[in-house]
Amino acid sequence: MSRFFDTKIEFLKGVGPTKAELLNKELKIFSFGDLLQHYPFRYEDRTKVYQIHEITGSMTNIQLRGCLRDMRMIGEGRKKRLVAHLVDDTGEIELVWFKGASWMQKNIKVGAVYLVFGKPTYFNGKYNIAHPEMDPATEGNQRPSYLHPIYPSTEKLRARYLDSKGISKLQKNLLIEGYKLINESLSQQLVEWHQLISKKEALKSIHFPSDQNVLRKAQYRLKFEEFFYLQLRLIKLKLTRVEKFKGQVFDSTTILTDFYNNHLPFELTNAQKKVIREIYHDLKSGKQMNRLIQGDVGSGKTIVSFICMLIVIGNGAQAALMAPTEILADQHYKGLKPFADELGLEIAMLKGSSRKKARQIISETLADGSLQILVGTHALIEDTVQFKNLGLAIVDEQHRFGVAQRAKLWKKNQAYFPHILVMTATPIPRTLAMTVYGDLDVSTIDELPAGRKEIQTIHKYDSNRLELFGFIRKQIALGRQVYVVYPLIEESEKLDLKDLTDGFESINRAFPEYQVGILHGKMKADAKEYEMQRFVKNETQIMVATTVIEVGVNVPNATVMVIENAERFGLAQLHQLRGRVGRGADQSYCVLMTSVKLTKESKNRIQTMVGTNNGFEIAEADLKLRGPGDMMGTQQSGILDLLIADLGKDSAILDIARQAAQELLKEDPNLEKEENAPIKLQIKNQRKSSLNWSRIS
Ligand code: ADP
Ligand code: MG
Fold first, then answer.
1. Residue spans per domain, the chain
2. Which residues contact 21 (CB under 8 A, 6 or more apart)?
3. Of 329, 363, 364, nearest to 349 (Cα)?
């Protein structure tokens, strides 16, 4: 891009210091280039002019053409307003202004013909439009039909006339001079192969589309470019990592073979075997592994991670497994300990609540290498925890950890970075994985162990509670156990906690013949542990809990998951909770309880849950409903702050752009070819312009 676009925004015609400051503050627009990249987020179709008799109740903004028949100011003080009437050949409609009434009165004329734009509402038996836009429809102003751009703006900006119309005016001023200075930022080859319009045309048409077709082409071109550069960067990052970071070579499989032949309690699924092969390939490659396993709840990630530990230990190194909660760490430890014992391996657990004495022993045995497996919570990453030779660090439910916490694991081995395996049961669609985990390799366990019965998901309104209790009673009579979960989004919310305890009491009253347990985040660690163990041993039949049981908990005899106020949970969370049942051989059920009043979005979520058990389908639906930023939480959303492309909707373009980036790097890894000079330049410019770059780093 020409230096012209680095010019400070205050020097643009129509801006000046005051507006410049507002644009800086409110929209982070500092330069001409920033303004040019401030794209409309939608367009109003003003290609059609309606007739007044066509107006119906369900219309959004529409355009009318008619003569202003009369106008007058009525009311006093705060009720003062300007009321006018517009007529065309088919009828009349009232126009009204509460704000800026005097200004409008001075600027429109009775008897003149106007193009009027606004949203009609039905009030007191007739239609009116409040605060319509008025444009004189004189001979000289026979506007061609067009798509009106709507820009992100704010209250403060609008007060300074920097609404969509105002911003559009600035874009026009900018393009008058700037248009000819816009350089092509992709190679000619890419432009031709992908039949893209030029950068110039795309930028002009994104702000001033002459019709839908042109707009689509402009959007496609800009989305393609945005994805292309994002992918180029991610692929490059990964290539560099692979080149730079050596990994310990772990190729002996003696312990692994012993385990396979003599101790494996079940046949692995093909998906599990495939993932283990992928990991083994990494471990013996001499490069550091950085891999994500995504697999639906219950797909058997734990055993896969254990088998990988065995490879590492068989080669004389140590392994660590970090889980986000103490309950989950306990469960992993208890699940793996018998295997470790059979194989003659040393395993220990470290939690925040671990005693000094235990910590000391762990410290010593870790340092001399006799402790081979350490399971724990984030207590694992404290600086005092030092390994002799950590060969593999595994992070379970990785989305619960921050990037910084994961990075600390890397530093647990000075000679070589440990191989890293992160696991998630929140599967994300492939498109998102490619981007969010752009520099991770992704393995997917896309198959559940044989013999699992599909969980049946049922939606019930609160008024059906008696029926629900009857159902629970039947299941318990069959020997099964039940979870009842209440939302406790913020563990500090007193109200939620009251819901939970009220629920606990009413269930206690309804089931005097059974034992009922309670579990929430505010309880002390040993109280939690005690309640959990009682449930595991079937000493309690019903567990009333908050989402502390959301991740990982494994009690195969539990077959009913009742989720109270299900409308308050997100899709990913509902799916996680549902995954707590269906872990044994018996038919399991998930009951979603909601009030009768549901928003469209809640209804949509509930229907998705009832409709599918497939985590990937749910993740896709979630992405469409909520958008990627929300889905990943703020920690990872930085990368997803795209200017125009949308990971939820534009996955097809992403695929194409990624492929293009891959091919380019294969043919010209250092971008040395003459024809790729524009790409090289663009990358250089992006690096310089901290704003753009910070948006995706
Ligand atoms: P997740 O992927 O949700 O972490 P787990 O690793 O907790 O799932 O496994 C869920 C349950 O399935 C465990 O009880 C585990 O022992 C069992 N399991 C794992 N793999 C298999 C398999 N191949 N065949 C039968 N059961 C399996
Ligand atoms: Mg798990």
1. 1-42+163-181, 48-143, 254-285+300-424, 456-612
2. none
3. 329
| 328 Cα–ligand 1 center, Å | 14
Range with the poorest average pLDDT among 94-103, 134-143, 374-383: 134-143
CA of 58 to the centre of ligand 2 (A): 48
Give the whole-number percent of the chain exceeding pLDDT 70: 92
Assigned fold of 1-42+163-181: DNA polymerase; domain 1 (1.10.150)
Q: What is the pLDDT of residue 145?
A: 58
Q: Ligand 1 test: best mutation among 267, 274, 297, 299, most atoms within 8 Å of CB? A: 299
User: Which residues are within 8 A (CB) of 436 and not within 5 positions of it... i.e. 6 or more apart?
Assistant: 428, 628, 632, 636, 639, 640
Does pLDDT of 630 surpass 80?
Answer: no
Residue nearest to ligand 1 atom 18, measured at CA: 300
Instruction: Output the residue whose Cα is nearest ligand 1's atom 26.
Output: 449
More confident residue, 691 or 71: 71
Is 456-612 in the same CATH topology as 254-285+300-424? yes
Mean pLDDT of 251-256: 91
Mean pLDDT (whole number) for 19-39 = 93
How far is the C-alpha of 283 from the C-alpha of 203, rounded, in Å?
Answer: 47
Please check the confidence at residue 102 and state whether its pLDDT lies above 90.
no
Residue with CA closest to ligand 1 atom 16: 300
Which atom of ligand 1 is least distant from the CA of 267? 23
CATH topology of domain 48-143: OB fold (Dihydrolipoamide Acetyltransferase, E2P) (2.40.50)
Helix (H, G, I), strand (E, B) or coil at 670: coil
- Angle in degrees, CA 371, 377, 382, rounded to 5: 75
Q: Which ligand is nearest the CA of 339, by number?
A: 1
pLDDT value at position 209? Answer: 92
456-612 is classed in which CATH architecture?
3-Layer(aba) Sandwich (3.40)
- Average per-residue pLDDT for the chain: 87
Specify the fold of 254-285+300-424.
Rossmann fold (3.40.50)
pLDDT reading at 692 higher than 50: no
Q: What is the pLDDT of residues 176-193, one digit of tens each?
A: 999 999 999 999 999 999
Contact 608, 621 (CB under 8 A): yes
User: Looking at residue 634, what is its pLDDT?
Assistant: 35
- The residues whose Cβ lies within 5 A of ligand 2, an ion, are 552
Question: Which ligand has the nearest atom to the CA of 444?
Answer: 1
Q: How far is the CA of 625 from the centre of ligand 2 (A)?
A: 26
SS3 572: helix
Residue holding tokens 């020097």?
11
